[in-house]
Amino acid sequence: MLLRKIIFVFAVIAFFPLAAYADSLLPALPKAKENYDDKTKCVEPVEVMRQSHMDFILHQRDDTLRKGIRTKQHSLKECINCHNAPAEDGKVASAKDKEHFCSSCHVYTAVQIDCFKCHNDKPANTQYRHKISSQVFKQHKFATQDLNQEMLELLATEKEGQQ
Amino acid sequence: MSQVKESKVDQYRRSFLAQSTAIAGMTLTSGVILNSVAQAKSADQPASDKNRWGLLIDANKCSTGCNTCVTACHEENGVTGSGNPETDPQWIRKVKLTDKQTQKVQTIPLMCQHCAKPPCVDVCPTNASMKRADGVVLVDKHACIGCRYCMMACPYGARSFIHEPTTEQIYPRGQGTVESCTLCVHRIDDPNGPRNPACVEACNAEGHKAMWFGDLKDPNSEITKRLKEYGGVQIRADLGLNTGVRYQNLN
Lengths: 163, 251
Known about the structure:
heterodimer, A: mainly alpha, about 50% helix, B: alpha+beta, 3-stranded mixed beta sheet
């Protein structure tokens, strides 16, 4: 009986650091920028997203590319915009970093993803282009006219195209 | 904001925009705002075969020393290379034509011609090379295996292979896949109505106004009217591909 107790104590001592280590390996998911919906939090209930996010993205990619349906709910771009928003110091994690929302889990589960070989792993400020080019095609970079006041203000408030 | 709320706001915005642009379209000169703005498709609507997007290029207006459309295209779409002209991707390039008789020199921008019967789609073994319902020919890079068969099949040499790894992409593009002009499909799908591709926008901004973008199936669009009035030719019309890009005043 005593022997068994001693073994148990030893076992606890032996495995305690391992247990703590295992805990530290668990993915530390960065917080999303905002809730899509107050009830479901993410674009679908969180449990559904954990299990089936790949199906939503897969479905959406075919719809978008082949049919031109560009809804934002299941778009990978919006995932990145919300889940990989710049930190307070302005830094944005790359897919190679463990701090990246996708990588944090995918490294843990050892599931390799190819998304970011083509897609940008950082949020892109697409408004940068769109706002400028929507100025009735005059104020393109190549335009010969001088910039007007309104345009200068717009340019001043815009951030870089890529974070 | 919930999805329902957002879509309602969007609906209101769209109807407001459609009304206001219809009025604005009457007062502004044509070509500044597309005549087809009224057909703006919402984000959840698929591309329709009621449209066929195309370009019209006036070779006489295209300036021989100008490369603006190429720069604008590559900047808009984030097309970058390693500085090696042999392998760098080229979505659009300037082609020089010299008349043997008169030595008259013309340049034209040459890009994917968005054929109605695209040979690149015919030969693709994985169905990655595809044509959208509205006539835009694209590469589905999810399915592309990089065999480059489409590059061989294209009579215009319009497609490029991405040799280098990509980072900081503006629109998805990755090493080992084929890419080409998308007719700025992200602009076509703009929920506020289709906008001119980057090349056309830059050409207009530069003051050459040698390119028109529009719906070839819309009898009231600027491009259709111009084609009807002045005519336009396809490059390699003998192949019977029915291209979406037409040229005027070619030597």
